[in-house]
Amino acid sequence: MRIRDHRADDSPQIDLVPMIDVILVLIIFFVVTTTFDARSVIKLELPRASGEQTEATAPLIVLVNAEGRYFVDDREVLRTDIGSLKATIAEVAGTDRDRPVMLRADARTPYQAVVTVYDALGQLGFNRVMSATAPPAGEGSGAVP
Questions:
Q1: Which GO cellular component terms are attached (predicted)?
Q2: Partner of 86 at 20 to 30 A CA spacing, among 3, 54, 61, 115?
């Protein structure tokens, strides 16, 4: 009786399951760490006003949410005092004080938070400050892009 050796028939195989697991972990990592547009993260309800939109070149955007938290371009100001706000604005804007500033404050924002932004911008020497508003309810969708 001849005993057949089955080891010779086995061909090497590459197991793809660990590679697929690693790729899925990388995809999840990149999705979680992706930076999204600040406008989609921060929900603002802008006050209403009628008027024409003006197009400015690359304004410095200062956001104030309903809780009175400040955001300068894509950076959040960690404390709500004027010193922290001035330091963040100066760091983001650099030495360009002629750059226009767009203030986007939620309609439910405490008035003191808006006054603090104007005060900080004035102390830093910015004189071209615009306030973002939404068109009246009958004229548009109610949000400024």
A1: plasma membrane
A2: 54
